[in-house]
Write a structure and sequence with these properties.
This protein has 111 residues and is of the alpha+beta class. It has three helices and five strands; from the N terminus they run βαααββββ. The chain has a single domain, classed as Alpha-Beta Complex (Ribosomal Protein L22, Chain A). Strands 1-5-2 form a three-stranded antiparallel β-sheet, covered by helices on one side. The protein has a two-stranded antiparallel ribbon with strand order 3-4.
Length: 111
Amino acid sequence: MEARATLKFARISPRKVKIVLDLIRNQDAEKAMAILKFTPKSACEYLEKLLHSAMANAEEKSMDMSKLYVAECLVCPGPTLKRIRAKDHGRAHRILKRTSHVTIVLKEREN
């Protein structure tokens, strides 16, 4: 049995999120929450809420909370917002504001 939570259109680059997801992959859910709480990365704020949501979904499915671990966590790029920044001599440069779709899947360990 699995519990999943998805965050769509998060205004953070997928590259920044992937660094933090690599830290919590295959960790126990409580340990992953502690890692997110004390890691000084901007993606942790989004992922902490997402992990909390996945744990609530697992509790709703009456899964054993002490056996939960992060089985899968992945990030996909969402739509990119294109903006223009004025530069010298009347030129314009494009600014890409990237978004992310993040998914976390929790499963029970089989001991």
